[in-house]
Amino acid sequence: MFPDVEPAEVTDAYALLNLVSSENIHHPIHWPAWKRWSIATFYAFLQVFVTMLSTDYVSAEFLVEERFNVGAQVATLGQSLFIIGTAFGPVIIGPSSDLLGRKWIYVVGITLYAIVNFGVAYPLNMPMLVIFMFLAGTTGSVALCNVAATIGDMFGDSASASQASSPPATARPVGS
Fold first, then answer.
1. DSSP code of 46?
2. Could you read off the pLDDT of 13-66 as tens digits, one per residue?
3. Does 122 fall in a domain?
């Protein structure tokens, strides 16, 4: 992962945290501006496209009702379970991206999202549509929960890049 670090140094957990510091030349904060902005733009559009599936479903609910001969409440289940999937996905995806790195979480998540959308586009029955909408929400949530962290990694300040829970170096305890 980091060519200038010996594998023996990575065995200690604290040493691993030091590899992620913004002083490391491989940290995203040191990438050229064109690369950081193109990645940020791509991920922002990715976030929009994932969110659009939920809103596009609403405009097609009457078609779902006609095709599967269900009522409005049952047809709404697809959108509801998509939203539940977007709430469930970050529970697993968020911590995984911090532990395993964001790049491969994006690659795997968006690949699965693309595959699952075939089930949304060509369902055989209403339960299949509802299940695939849930899976689309779960796998698509990678864009919803990781984009802000990715942008923080690339554009954060050099002292605490994307470490929102740690106080800045100049912060003093309350009451002192």
1. H
2. 555 555 566 667 777 888 899 999 999 999 999 989 888 888 888 899 999 999
3. yes
How many CB atoms within 10 Å of residue 83?
14
Is 3 inside a domain boundary?
no
Distance CA 158, CA 79 (A): 41
What is the Cα–Cα distance from 128 to 108, expressed in whole angstroms?
22
Cα–Cα dist 142/157, whole Å: 24
How many structural domains is the chain composed of?
A: 1
Q: How far apart are CA 141 and CA 106, in angstroms?
A: 10
In a domain, 9, yes or no: no
What is the chain's mean pLDDT, rounded?
81
Asked if residue 39 lies in contact with residue 103, where contact means CB atoms within 8 angstroms, the answer is: no
Q: What is the DSSP string of 62-112?
A: HHHHHHHT--HHHHTHHHHHHHHHHHHHHHHHHHHHHHH-HHHHHHHHHHH
Termini Cα distance of the chain: 42
Residue 24 domain-assigned (yes or no): no
Find the farthest-apart pair of alpha carbons in the chain and give their distance in angstroms, rounded: 67
| Residue range(s) defining the domain that contains residue 59 | 31-155
Tell me which of 32-36, 100-104, 154-158, 166-170 is least confident. 166-170
